[in-house]
Structures are given as C-alpha cells and as structure tokens.
Amino acid sequence: MRLRTCTACGKVEKVRADNPATQCRPCAARPALAQGRRARSADRNRETCQHCGRVFPAPPSSRQQFCNRACRHAAQSVERTCATCDGSFRIARSVLSDRTNSSGRFCSRSCYERHLCRTPRIRGRGSRWKTIRKAALRQTPFCACCGKTRHLQVHHIIPFRLTRDNSPTNLIPLCRACHKRVESVFHDVEAVDPPLPVTKLVLFCSIHARRTVTLHMLKSSAHAGQRAAA
Q1: Residues in the chain where the model's pLDDT stays below 70
Q2: Neighbour-count burial of 23, counting CB atoms closer than 10 A to its CB (0-12 exposed, 13-18 middle, 19+ buried)
Q3: pLDDT at residue 42, as a whole number
Q4: What is the pLDDT of residue 128?
Q5: How high is the pLDDT of residue 78?
Q6: Are 66 and 76 in contact (CB under 8 A)?
Q7: Share of the chain above pLDDT 70, in %
Q8: How close are the terminal C-alpha atoms of the chain, in Å?
Q9: Secondary structure of the chain in the HEC alphabet?
C-alpha cells in the first residue's frame, strides 16, 4: 500500500502500490460525466422560453414552452391590486372572468367579505315585497342586460337602504351574473360620492335604455326564428 494525494482536490488516501492513478475516484470520473452530459444535451432540441427569451435544451417530444417553473408561473399569472386593501397580488389569468364581481379584484377572502360589508345591510324589502317582485318579473320577464329568462333576480337601481323605494321605476330584473356586475358598478360610483339625484338620473337612464335595447334584440331573434320555421 502507498499514500496517494489527489492532484485535483488534494485528498490523501491509501491505495495499492501498483495503482498508477494520480486522482481519486470522484475526480477521475468528472471528465467522463461532463462528456456524457454534453452528449445527452447534443441530442436535445433547443427551445426558447416564451417568458424570458432564454434558449434551453429540451427533449424533442416534450414541447416545453418555459425554461423553469418560475417563468411558467409569471407568464400564466397577472399582477393585480386589491380593491379593499390596495395591496398587490398575483392571480392566474384563467381565473379572471366577468361572471362575478370578485374575480381578480381581491387578494383574499377576508378582503372580499370586508368589501361586501362596507355598507349597512337591511334585511327585508317591506311587507308587500313578494307581490311587488312578482309584478316586476311579469312586466319584464327577462334580464335587462343579457336577455336571459331563467334564475332572475329583481334589482333596486338605487339601493333600498338609501331610498326605501320599491316603485316599478326603481326595479329591474337581472340574472345573477349581471346583478353582481351592476351592483359592483354602483359601489364604484358610490365611492366617488356624487349627489344622489345625479346618480339616480344616470343609472335610471342607462339601465332602462339597456332594457329597451335587450327587448328589441329578443324581438328580432324571435321574428328571425319564426321566419326560419315558416
């Protein structure tokens, strides 16, 4: 046996006297390992990351679009500002939609709940509300925004908590999705704190005009269906 000092890392170890190697086993294997990696990389395709633009090796059948998970997450998400706490957060692009007023607007459930409860809540709409609601649905049996005829809700153009107004001019049938969007618009307008008469005039005109347009669209589609059937 003899003592050998590795010429690469300086490690001292005992080896057989007839062993001519001047490097330890890990250091001697590194060139072969690097050569194998280069050979495997040469057989791969070269893809360009769609987020950062870096060229990276990838197997021919993988069809990778991003060089790592961080780039994929950054490309598939968008940075937003919370409507309640004004904090920044990232959210997946696939989550964003117009179906609800909470989509991509709040960083957490608690902020969304604080947003919903920032105005006083009033339970009930008066003793005759069921009768008034049925009359409003008979008068306009479709959503004033999109024209749907199922799962309708009766919306107060100016909230009941402000005016206690259940008159027909202040009621408009809306589907669930449109109801949430219209309420979100009113909350944004209310945050600016304009005079209530101005708010009434603007909202009454816009929503009733939209209902008229929707009615004409429904009539046109019905006439087209009758002509096609004939």
Answers
A1: 41-44, 98-102, 116-124, 230
A2: middle
A3: 67
A4: 84
A5: 87
A6: no
A7: 92
A8: 105
A9: CEEEECCCCCCEEEECCCCCCCCCHHHHHHHHHHHHHHHHHHCCEEEECCCCCCEEEECCCCCCCCCCHHHHHHHCEEEEECCCCCCEEEEEHHHCCCCCCCCCCCCCHHHHHHHHCCCCCCCCCCCCHHHHHHHHHHHCCCCCCCCCCCCEEEEECCCHHHHCCCCHHHEEEEEHHHHHHHHHHHHHHHHHCCCHHHHHHHHHHHHHHHHHHHHHHHHHHHHHHHHHHC
Find tokens 């395709």 and name the residue.
Answer: 45
Q: What one-letter code names the amino acid at 46? A: R
Q: What are the distances in angstroms from CA 196 to CA 15, 66, 128?
A: 94, 52, 25
